[in-house]
Amino acid sequence: MKKRKLIIDCDPGVDDAVMLALAAAHQEQLEIMGIITVSGNQDIEKVSRNARDLSEFFGMKAPVARGMDRPIVRKPLYAPETHGEDGIGGCVLPAAQKTEIRENGILFMRKLLEEMQPEEKASIVATGPLTNIALLLRMFPETAERIREIVFMGGSLSGGNVTDAAEFNFYEDPEAAKIVLHSGVPLVMCGLDVTEKCTLTRKQILKMCQWGSPAAKLCGDMLGYCLENSSEKYRGEVSVHDAVPVLYLLHPEIFEGGHKILDVDCSEGTARGAVLGGFRWWKNETEETNVYVLTDADKKKFQEYLITSLYELAQ
Ligand code: BDR
Ligand code: CA
């Protein structure tokens, strides 16, 4: 079977880290061309170091390049309360041998896309603010044709997690989200509507720590950190938001969704970062939609596929 070409744009981040482990476990199906980092859960220095250390630890040879160190308009905001000061819940892992690509992440992404054979296209999985991808599409609009689809974790049709209205990745850089939403590139949105249903339980996380492999223990410890620091809302479970885009590429049949016309609020008001639209269903039937939005998942299957993948990686 021909491998799917994949570029990962991320801000690790505990759930980004689990996403990397999941992708690493499926390198027979996924050709991971490169990993680009973006300021988000922590500053660009920390997330870039995490991306190098984690990808090497999980056995991925993919090169890592550093993208934008801030959102397009506003100052960066980090999420230490969820991911810890180091972005990976205080977990320690060996420093990677691999060094970072010296080229800026946006230019590197362009190079990866342009160096493919003319008939080839790559998918992009984005699990941080959409800053790098928005700037890529603005600076080099011709690259849009080389992108099969962008599957991103971000946004929500059902309330936010940073503010009442906005999800973290969209709140962090709504201007970037707006550029991507209007880019014309095929988009799949994995927002809180679906990712909050994609959880692991305390018991599953504890078990993972007992498998006896360093990779499993690392994932278990990081998720355990989130579990201890998450609010009552999650009732003893952790949403593994960023694993959803990769699992969608591997197992689209476990998700439900619909085509919608969406926009994002870029005002300075209380709705900054909120997803707009999607409710007037008749519009989606008569006008051209811009996003396929995941709205539901088979939670049991999500858990089964994620746990099995991490288990296989650990062996
Ligand atoms: C998103 O915000 C980040 O903290 C997570 O890594 C995920 O990408 C969830 O809202
Ligand atoms: Ca993330």
Question: Can you tell me about this structure?
Answer:
The two termini are 23 Å apart. This protein has helices at 14-24, 44-57, 80-83, 105-114, 131-139, 168-172, 174-181, 192-195, 202-209, 214-229, 243-250, 281-286, 299-314; strands at 4-10, 30-37, 64-66, 122-126, 147-153, 187-190, 199-201, 237-239, 255-260, 262-264, 275-277, 291-297. It is an alpha/beta fold. It has an 8-stranded mixed sheet with strand order 3-2-1-4-5-6-12-9, with helices on both faces. Strands 7-8 form a two-stranded antiparallel ribbon. The protein is built from 13 helices and 12 strands. The mean pLDDT is 95. Helix 5 links the parallel strand 4 and strand 5. It has a single domain (5-314), classed as Ribonucleoside hydrolase-like (Inosine-uridine Nucleoside N-ribohydrolase, Chain A). The radius of gyration is 18 Å and the shape is globular. It binds beta-D-ribofuranose and calcium ion.
Chart the SSEs and their pairings.
Elements: E1 4-10, H1 14-24, E2 30-37, H2 44-57, E3 64-66, H3 80-83, H4 105-114, E4 122-126, H5 131-139, E5 147-153, H6 168-172, H7 174-181, E6 187-190, H8 192-195, E7 199-201, H9 202-209, H10 214-229, E8 237-239, H11 243-250, E9 255-260, E10 262-264, E11 275-277, H12 281-286, E12 291-297, H13 299-314
Helix pairs in contact: 1-2, 1-10, 1-11, 4-5, 5-7, 9-10, 10-13
Calcium ion binds near residues 11, 40 and 242.
